[in-house]
Amino acid sequence: xxxxxxxxxxxxxxxxxxGLKVQDIDPPVPKVDEVVIKIHASxxxxxxIAFIQGTYNIVKPLPAVPGxxxxxxVVDAYKNTSDLIGKKVSCFVQNDDFGTxxxxxxxxxxxxxxxxxxxxxxxxxxxxxxxxxxxxxFNIAVLRETKAIIQNAAGSQVAALIRKMALLNDVxxxxxxxxxxxADKLVSEGVKHVLVDTDENFESQLKDICTSLNPGVAxxxxxxxxxxxxxxxxxxxxxxxxxxxxxxxxxxGIDVMDVIFRDKIISGFNLIDWKNEMDxxxxxxxxxxxxxxxxxxxxxTAICGNTSLENVVKGLRAYISDMSKGKLLIVP
Length: 332
Ligand SMILES: NC(=O)c1ccc[n+]([C@@H]2O[C@H](COP(=O)([O-])OP(=O)(O)OC[C@H]3O[C@@H](n4cnc5c(N)ncnc54)[C@H](OP(=O)(O)O)[C@@H]3O)[C@@H](O)[C@H]2O)c1
Hints:
- This protein is an alpha/beta fold and 332 residues long.
- It folds into two domains: 2-126 and 301-330, Medium-chain alcohol dehydrogenases, catalytic domain (Quinone Oxidoreductase, Chain A, domain 1), CATH 3.90.180; 130-272, 3-Layer(aba) Sandwich (Rossmann fold), CATH 3.40.50.
- It has twelve helices and 15 strands.
- The chain has helices spanning 13-18, 46-53, 121-125, 130-143, 157-168, 180-188, 202-213, 224-233, 256-261, 271-276, 280-295, 312-321; strands at residues 2-5, 21-24, 34-43, 69-77, 88-92, 104-108, 112-114, 148-151, 172-177, 193-196, 217-220, 239-242, 265-268, 303-307, 327-330.
- The strands form three sheets. Strands 3, 4, 5, 6, 7, 14 and 15 form a seven-stranded mixed β-sheet that branches. It has a six-stranded parallel β-sheet with strand order 10-9-8-11-12-13, sandwiched between helices.
- Helix 6 (180-188) links the parallel strand 9 (172-177) and strand 10.
- The longest helix has 16 residues, at 280-295.
- It binds NADP nicotinamide-adenine-dinucleotide phosphate.
- The site of NADP nicotinamide-adenine-dinucleotide phosphate has 26 residues, from helix 2, helix 4 and helix 5.
Protein backbone atom coordinates (compact mmCIF):
# COMPACT_ATOMS: atom_id res chain seq x y z
CA UNK A 1 0.00 0.00 0.00
CA UNK A 2 1.07 3.59 -0.58
CA UNK A 3 1.94 5.68 2.48
CA UNK A 4 3.65 8.97 3.22
CA UNK A 5 6.91 8.14 4.99
CA UNK A 6 8.95 10.40 7.28
CA UNK A 7 12.64 9.36 7.17
CA UNK A 8 13.87 11.79 9.85
CA UNK A 9 12.56 14.39 12.27
CA UNK A 10 13.65 17.98 11.70
CA UNK A 11 12.80 21.03 13.85
CA UNK A 12 12.98 23.10 10.66
CA UNK A 13 9.47 22.57 9.34
CA UNK A 14 10.38 23.14 5.68
CA UNK A 15 13.22 20.58 5.84
CA UNK A 16 10.97 18.14 7.72
CA UNK A 17 8.30 18.47 5.02
CA UNK A 18 10.77 18.18 2.14
CA GLY A 19 12.00 14.89 3.60
CA LEU A 20 8.55 13.25 3.23
CA LYS A 21 8.29 10.56 0.55
CA VAL A 22 5.55 8.30 -0.77
CA GLN A 23 6.54 4.65 -0.50
CA ASP A 24 4.99 1.23 -0.88
CA ILE A 25 4.95 -0.46 2.50
CA ASP A 26 3.57 -3.79 3.68
CA PRO A 27 -0.19 -3.66 4.23
CA PRO A 28 -1.39 -4.02 7.82
CA VAL A 29 -2.42 -7.38 9.23
CA PRO A 30 -4.93 -7.03 12.08
CA LYS A 31 -4.14 -8.61 15.45
CA VAL A 32 -6.59 -9.32 18.25
CA ASP A 33 -9.01 -6.36 18.81
CA GLU A 34 -7.81 -4.65 15.62
CA VAL A 35 -9.41 -3.65 12.33
CA VAL A 36 -7.97 -2.49 9.00
CA ILE A 37 -9.45 0.74 7.65
CA LYS A 38 -9.38 1.78 3.99
CA ILE A 39 -8.84 5.49 4.37
CA HIS A 40 -11.24 8.00 2.85
CA ALA A 41 -9.35 11.08 4.08
CA SER A 42 -6.98 12.21 6.82
CA UNK A 43 -6.57 15.83 7.96
CA UNK A 44 -3.44 17.79 8.73
CA UNK A 45 -3.51 18.98 12.34
CA UNK A 46 -0.99 21.12 14.27
CA UNK A 47 -0.01 17.90 16.10
CA UNK A 48 1.08 16.41 12.73
CA ILE A 49 3.31 19.42 12.10
CA ALA A 50 4.84 19.07 15.58
CA PHE A 51 5.19 15.31 14.99
CA ILE A 52 7.27 15.62 11.81
CA GLN A 53 9.42 18.22 13.60
CA GLY A 54 10.02 15.69 16.40
CA THR A 55 8.55 18.09 18.99
CA TYR A 56 5.25 16.27 19.70
CA ASN A 57 4.78 14.00 22.70
CA ILE A 58 4.46 11.02 20.32
CA VAL A 59 7.82 10.05 18.78
CA LYS A 60 7.67 6.96 16.55
CA PRO A 61 10.68 4.88 15.54
CA LEU A 62 11.85 5.94 12.06
CA PRO A 63 11.01 5.66 9.23
CA ALA A 64 7.44 6.42 10.31
CA VAL A 65 4.08 7.12 8.68
CA PRO A 66 2.60 10.42 9.97
CA GLY A 67 -1.10 11.12 10.56
CA UNK A 68 -3.17 10.31 13.65
CA UNK A 69 -6.75 10.78 12.47
CA UNK A 70 -8.90 9.66 9.52
CA UNK A 71 -12.25 8.49 8.23
CA UNK A 72 -12.78 5.35 6.20
CA UNK A 73 -14.33 1.92 5.96
CA VAL A 74 -13.37 -1.23 7.84
CA VAL A 75 -12.21 -3.72 5.20
CA ASP A 76 -10.50 -6.38 7.31
CA ALA A 77 -10.46 -7.41 10.96
CA TYR A 78 -9.21 -9.99 13.42
CA LYS A 79 -11.77 -12.71 14.03
CA ASN A 80 -13.03 -11.16 17.30
CA THR A 81 -13.84 -7.88 15.51
CA SER A 82 -15.02 -9.22 12.14
CA ASP A 83 -18.57 -7.91 12.72
CA LEU A 84 -17.13 -4.43 12.06
CA ILE A 85 -16.20 -5.17 8.43
CA GLY A 86 -18.12 -2.80 6.15
CA LYS A 87 -18.69 -0.16 8.86
CA LYS A 88 -17.95 3.51 8.20
CA VAL A 89 -15.65 4.81 10.94
CA SER A 90 -13.53 7.68 12.20
CA CYS A 91 -10.30 6.69 13.88
CA PHE A 92 -7.59 8.16 16.09
CA VAL A 93 -4.43 6.08 15.84
CA GLN A 94 -1.14 6.66 17.64
CA ASN A 95 0.40 3.41 16.48
CA ASP A 96 4.21 3.14 16.00
CA ASP A 97 3.89 1.00 12.87
CA PHE A 98 1.18 2.83 10.93
CA GLY A 99 -0.18 6.34 10.39
CA THR A 100 -3.23 7.74 8.64
CA UNK A 101 -1.43 9.51 5.77
CA UNK A 102 -1.76 6.25 3.91
CA UNK A 103 -4.13 4.08 1.89
CA UNK A 104 -4.85 1.83 4.89
CA UNK A 105 -4.34 1.95 8.63
CA UNK A 106 -4.76 -0.57 11.42
CA UNK A 107 -6.65 0.57 14.52
CA UNK A 108 -7.64 -0.91 17.86
CA UNK A 109 -11.43 -1.10 18.29
CA UNK A 110 -11.14 1.33 21.23
CA UNK A 111 -9.72 3.94 18.84
CA UNK A 112 -12.53 3.94 16.30
CA UNK A 113 -15.93 5.58 16.30
CA UNK A 114 -18.63 3.82 14.30
CA UNK A 115 -20.39 6.49 12.29
CA UNK A 116 -24.03 7.10 11.61
CA UNK A 117 -24.88 6.55 7.92
CA UNK A 118 -25.65 10.25 7.35
CA UNK A 119 -22.21 11.43 8.51
CA UNK A 120 -20.28 13.20 5.73
CA UNK A 121 -16.95 11.35 5.32
CA UNK A 122 -14.86 14.52 4.86
CA UNK A 123 -16.27 15.91 8.12
CA UNK A 124 -15.77 12.46 9.67
CA UNK A 125 -12.05 12.66 8.82
CA UNK A 126 -11.76 15.50 11.37
CA UNK A 127 -14.22 14.07 13.89
CA UNK A 128 -12.24 12.16 16.51
CA UNK A 129 -10.02 14.99 17.79
CA UNK A 130 -11.25 18.58 17.50
CA UNK A 131 -15.00 18.23 18.17
CA UNK A 132 -14.34 16.22 21.35
CA UNK A 133 -11.61 18.66 22.39
CA UNK A 134 -13.97 21.61 21.94
CA UNK A 135 -16.68 19.71 23.83
CA UNK A 136 -14.35 18.84 26.73
CA UNK A 137 -12.98 22.37 26.95
CA PHE A 138 -16.35 24.05 26.70
CA ASN A 139 -17.69 21.76 29.41
CA ILE A 140 -15.15 23.36 31.80
CA ALA A 141 -16.83 26.70 31.13
CA VAL A 142 -20.26 25.11 31.65
CA LEU A 143 -19.21 23.60 34.98
CA ARG A 144 -17.83 26.96 36.12
CA GLU A 145 -21.10 28.61 35.07
CA THR A 146 -19.18 31.47 33.48
CA LYS A 147 -20.93 33.78 31.04
CA ALA A 148 -17.76 34.68 29.13
CA ILE A 149 -14.58 32.97 27.98
CA ILE A 150 -11.33 34.05 26.32
CA GLN A 151 -9.62 31.99 23.63
CA ASN A 152 -6.51 32.51 21.53
CA ALA A 153 -5.63 30.91 18.16
CA ALA A 154 -9.25 31.88 17.55
CA GLY A 155 -8.99 31.22 13.79
CA SER A 156 -8.55 27.50 14.48
CA GLN A 157 -11.17 24.80 14.01
CA VAL A 158 -11.24 23.97 17.74
CA ALA A 159 -11.90 27.66 18.44
CA ALA A 160 -14.66 27.78 15.80
CA LEU A 161 -16.42 24.82 17.44
CA ILE A 162 -16.07 26.40 20.89
CA ARG A 163 -17.63 29.59 19.49
CA LYS A 164 -20.57 27.58 18.19
CA MET A 165 -21.05 25.82 21.55
CA ALA A 166 -20.81 29.18 23.33
CA LEU A 167 -23.44 30.70 21.06
CA LEU A 168 -25.84 27.84 21.79
CA ASN A 169 -25.26 28.37 25.53
CA ASP A 170 -25.41 32.16 25.51
CA VAL A 171 -21.77 32.55 26.56
CA UNK A 172 -19.70 35.48 25.23
CA UNK A 173 -16.34 34.68 23.61
CA UNK A 174 -13.36 37.03 23.51
CA UNK A 175 -11.41 35.83 20.47
CA UNK A 176 -7.69 36.54 20.05
CA UNK A 177 -5.86 36.00 16.75
CA UNK A 178 -2.37 36.91 15.61
CA UNK A 179 -3.16 38.30 12.13
CA UNK A 180 -5.41 41.20 11.14
CA UNK A 181 -6.66 39.22 8.10
CA UNK A 182 -7.91 36.43 10.39
CA ALA A 183 -9.67 39.03 12.54
CA ASP A 184 -11.28 40.53 9.42
CA LYS A 185 -12.45 37.08 8.30
CA LEU A 186 -14.02 36.32 11.70
CA VAL A 187 -15.71 39.72 11.86
CA SER A 188 -17.09 39.22 8.33
CA GLU A 189 -18.60 35.93 9.58
CA GLY A 190 -20.40 37.83 12.35
CA VAL A 191 -18.02 37.04 15.24
CA LYS A 192 -18.42 39.80 17.88
CA HIS A 193 -15.33 40.22 20.05
CA VAL A 194 -12.09 39.83 18.08
CA LEU A 195 -8.69 41.16 19.17
CA VAL A 196 -5.36 40.98 17.35
CA ASP A 197 -2.47 40.34 19.74
CA THR A 198 -0.02 42.30 17.57
CA ASP A 199 -2.16 45.46 17.80
CA GLU A 200 -0.32 48.14 19.80
CA ASN A 201 -3.35 48.64 22.06
CA PHE A 202 -3.98 44.93 22.54
CA GLU A 203 -3.28 44.80 26.28
CA SER A 204 -5.60 47.68 27.11
CA GLN A 205 -8.28 46.32 24.74
CA LEU A 206 -8.10 42.95 26.48
CA LYS A 207 -8.31 44.53 29.93
CA ASP A 208 -11.28 46.70 28.94
CA ILE A 209 -13.32 43.89 27.42
CA CYS A 210 -12.56 41.59 30.36
CA THR A 211 -13.65 44.28 32.83
CA SER A 212 -16.96 44.44 31.00
CA LEU A 213 -17.56 40.69 30.35
CA ASN A 214 -15.88 39.08 33.41
CA PRO A 215 -14.55 35.91 31.75
CA GLY A 216 -14.18 32.99 34.15
CA VAL A 217 -12.28 30.65 31.82
CA ALA A 218 -9.56 31.13 29.18
CA UNK A 219 -8.48 28.50 26.65
CA UNK A 220 -4.83 28.78 25.64
CA UNK A 221 -3.38 27.02 22.58
CA UNK A 222 -0.41 29.37 22.17
CA UNK A 223 1.59 29.81 25.41
CA UNK A 224 4.24 32.53 25.81
CA UNK A 225 3.42 36.09 26.89
CA UNK A 226 -0.12 35.92 25.47
CA UNK A 227 -1.16 33.13 27.85
CA UNK A 228 0.11 35.20 30.81
CA UNK A 229 -1.87 38.24 29.65
CA UNK A 230 -5.00 36.11 29.31
CA UNK A 231 -4.51 34.69 32.81
CA UNK A 232 -4.04 38.15 34.32
CA UNK A 233 -7.14 39.47 32.52
CA UNK A 234 -9.43 36.75 33.94
CA UNK A 235 -11.81 37.57 36.75
CA UNK A 236 -11.48 36.19 40.31
CA UNK A 237 -12.05 32.45 40.87
CA UNK A 238 -11.18 31.58 37.28
CA UNK A 239 -9.14 29.10 35.24
CA UNK A 240 -6.66 29.25 32.39
CA UNK A 241 -6.84 25.92 30.55
CA UNK A 242 -3.76 25.18 28.46
CA UNK A 243 -4.43 22.78 25.56
CA UNK A 244 -1.82 23.67 22.93
CA UNK A 245 1.66 25.14 22.65
CA UNK A 246 1.65 26.67 19.17
CA UNK A 247 4.26 29.36 19.93
CA UNK A 248 6.66 26.80 21.39
CA UNK A 249 7.26 29.28 24.24
CA UNK A 250 6.82 28.88 27.98
CA UNK A 251 4.01 30.79 29.62
CA UNK A 252 5.25 34.14 30.78
CA GLY A 253 4.19 36.94 33.13
CA ILE A 254 1.63 35.21 35.35
CA ASP A 255 0.67 37.54 38.22
CA VAL A 256 1.67 35.63 41.37
CA MET A 257 -0.74 37.64 43.53
CA ASP A 258 -3.63 36.49 41.33
CA VAL A 259 -2.72 32.87 42.01
CA ILE A 260 -2.42 33.41 45.76
CA PHE A 261 -5.21 35.84 46.52
CA ARG A 262 -7.74 35.69 43.66
CA ASP A 263 -8.39 31.93 43.40
CA LYS A 264 -7.10 31.77 39.84
CA ILE A 265 -5.69 28.47 38.58
CA ILE A 266 -3.91 27.05 35.55
CA SER A 267 -4.78 23.58 34.29
CA GLY A 268 -3.98 21.42 31.27
CA PHE A 269 -6.36 19.61 28.93
CA ASN A 270 -5.41 16.51 26.98
CA LEU A 271 -8.08 14.76 24.92
CA ILE A 272 -6.79 11.24 25.58
CA ASP A 273 -6.78 11.71 29.36
CA TRP A 274 -10.22 13.32 29.19
CA LYS A 275 -11.55 10.34 27.23
CA ASN A 276 -9.90 7.82 29.56
CA GLU A 277 -11.53 9.45 32.57
CA MET A 278 -15.06 8.61 31.41
CA ASP A 279 -16.83 5.31 30.88
CA UNK A 280 -17.57 4.12 27.37
CA UNK A 281 -21.30 4.80 27.67
CA UNK A 282 -20.71 8.45 28.53
CA UNK A 283 -18.27 8.81 25.64
CA UNK A 284 -20.70 7.17 23.22
CA UNK A 285 -23.47 9.55 24.32
CA UNK A 286 -21.23 12.55 23.61
CA UNK A 287 -20.23 11.01 20.26
CA UNK A 288 -23.90 10.54 19.29
CA UNK A 289 -24.72 14.11 20.28
CA UNK A 290 -21.77 15.49 18.30
CA UNK A 291 -22.56 13.35 15.25
CA UNK A 292 -26.16 14.59 15.29
CA UNK A 293 -24.90 18.18 15.35
CA UNK A 294 -22.57 17.50 12.41
CA UNK A 295 -25.33 15.76 10.47
CA UNK A 296 -27.83 18.60 10.99
CA UNK A 297 -25.12 21.15 10.09
CA UNK A 298 -25.01 22.95 13.47
CA UNK A 299 -21.31 22.07 13.73
CA UNK A 300 -18.81 21.69 10.91
CA THR A 301 -15.10 21.78 10.29
CA ALA A 302 -13.92 24.17 7.58
CA ILE A 303 -12.01 22.24 4.92
CA CYS A 304 -9.75 24.28 2.65
CA GLY A 305 -8.98 21.53 0.15
CA ASN A 306 -7.66 18.08 -0.65
CA THR A 307 -4.28 16.77 -1.63
CA SER A 308 -3.12 13.35 -2.80
CA LEU A 309 -0.42 11.37 -0.96
CA GLU A 310 1.97 12.26 -3.81
CA ASN A 311 1.32 16.02 -3.44
CA VAL A 312 1.56 16.07 0.34
CA VAL A 313 4.53 18.46 0.50
CA LYS A 314 2.81 21.05 -1.69
CA GLY A 315 -0.37 20.68 0.36
CA LEU A 316 1.45 21.03 3.69
CA ARG A 317 3.18 24.21 2.51
CA ALA A 318 -0.21 25.72 1.68
CA TYR A 319 -1.68 24.62 5.05
CA ILE A 320 1.10 26.12 7.18
CA SER A 321 0.99 29.41 5.28
CA ASP A 322 -2.70 29.94 6.20
CA MET A 323 -3.83 27.58 8.95
CA SER A 324 -6.97 29.59 9.72
CA LYS A 325 -8.33 28.82 6.24
CA GLY A 326 -9.42 25.34 7.29
CA LYS A 327 -8.24 21.76 7.27
CA LEU A 328 -6.28 20.22 4.45
CA LEU A 329 -7.43 16.66 3.78
CA ILE A 330 -4.99 14.07 2.51
CA VAL A 331 -6.98 11.80 0.23
CA PRO A 332 -5.25 8.59 -0.90
N1 LIG B 1 -4.85 19.15 24.06
C1 LIG B 1 -5.55 18.44 23.20
O1 LIG B 1 -6.03 17.35 23.51
C2 LIG B 1 -5.77 19.00 21.82
C3 LIG B 1 -6.63 18.34 20.93
C4 LIG B 1 -6.86 18.92 19.68
C5 LIG B 1 -6.22 20.10 19.32
N2 LIG B 1 -5.36 20.67 20.21
C6 LIG B 1 -4.67 21.92 19.88
O2 LIG B 1 -5.64 22.87 19.50
C7 LIG B 1 -5.00 23.88 18.72
C8 LIG B 1 -5.86 24.17 17.50
O3 LIG B 1 -5.91 22.99 16.70
P1 LIG B 1 -6.78 23.02 15.35
O4 LIG B 1 -6.68 21.69 14.71
O5 LIG B 1 -8.10 23.59 15.65
O6 LIG B 1 -5.94 24.08 14.49
P2 LIG B 1 -6.13 24.53 12.97
O7 LIG B 1 -7.57 24.61 12.64
O8 LIG B 1 -5.26 23.73 12.10
O9 LIG B 1 -5.57 26.02 13.01
C9 LIG B 1 -4.36 26.33 13.65
C10 LIG B 1 -4.53 27.73 14.20
O10 LIG B 1 -3.43 28.06 15.03
C11 LIG B 1 -2.98 29.36 14.73
N3 LIG B 1 -1.57 29.44 15.05
C12 LIG B 1 -0.57 28.66 14.58
N4 LIG B 1 0.60 29.00 15.15
C13 LIG B 1 0.32 30.02 15.99
C14 LIG B 1 1.11 30.82 16.87
N5 LIG B 1 2.44 30.61 17.00
N6 LIG B 1 0.51 31.79 17.57
C15 LIG B 1 -0.82 32.00 17.46
N7 LIG B 1 -1.64 31.29 16.66
C16 LIG B 1 -1.06 30.30 15.93
C17 LIG B 1 -3.26 29.51 13.25
O11 LIG B 1 -3.33 30.87 12.94
P3 LIG B 1 -2.68 31.47 11.58
O12 LIG B 1 -3.74 31.35 10.52
O13 LIG B 1 -2.38 32.85 12.01
O14 LIG B 1 -1.47 30.63 11.27
C18 LIG B 1 -4.60 28.79 13.13
O15 LIG B 1 -5.67 29.67 13.43
C19 LIG B 1 -3.62 23.33 18.41
O16 LIG B 1 -2.68 23.89 19.30
C20 LIG B 1 -3.76 21.85 18.68
O17 LIG B 1 -2.54 21.23 18.98
C21 LIG B 1 -5.14 20.15 21.44
